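are you around this afternoon, could really use another pair of eyes. what follows is a protein written twice so to speak, once as letters and once as structure tokens for the fold. i want to understand how the tokens follow from the sequence so walk me through it. anything you notice is useful, everything is just below.
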Amino acid sequence: MNVIRYIVAIGCILVAAYTVALNWGCVIVSIRNKKRGINRHHSVVPLGSAIFAAFALIAYPGPQRYLLLLVPIMDIGNWLLLWLPVVFIRSLRDKKN
């Protein structure tokens, strides 16, 4: 039974790591496009890696299970969620002015 849990946890954390890699790739491509004057933006997926990491955390039977949380911490899409209240407050302040 533990073998199946390990396989499911590794599969989920690999999907989460793939999401992190894609999000960083989107940010890098967006920055390169902006420097070249191309007005194309590539968006990131917030919470995608966190959901799969949570599944991996639930399935993983090992003692170092909380190391799996490093994957969503490295995700720039999740970082952008931290900036969401700041952007919202700035937009409300700009509407008043």
Summary: The chain is about 75% helix and 0% strand. The CA atoms of residues 87 and 93 lie 10 Å apart.
